[in-house]
Amino acid sequence: MPDGLVDPAQTCYRGDMMDRIDEDVRRQIDQLVDAYRDRCLWFLRADYYPTDRQEALRTLDYIRRYGDREAFRKAGELYQWLSPDSSRPSATS
């Protein structure tokens, strides 16, 4: 890789070039999936992890919906970070 350029494989969520997610956020989502798989995601495959932004948002929504208060808080923080609307200016801005 030439100097100054970032390897796309290092910045993409599961290799999807159109839907970049920070590697740290991807790791946090995967950890949350592992922590709440039995309680909140029992209806998904046992080896399921989201592969793109839309799947991540949907999975975080399941965790918020079916989890406890702490799950709601943790998933909500990640959901807000990933949400396409979170970068838009607010009505009061």
TrEMBL record:
Protein name stated in the entry: Uncharacterized protein
Species for this entry: Anaerobaca lacustris
Organism placement in taxonomy: Bacteria, Pseudomonadati, Planctomycetota, Phycisphaerae, Sedimentisphaerales
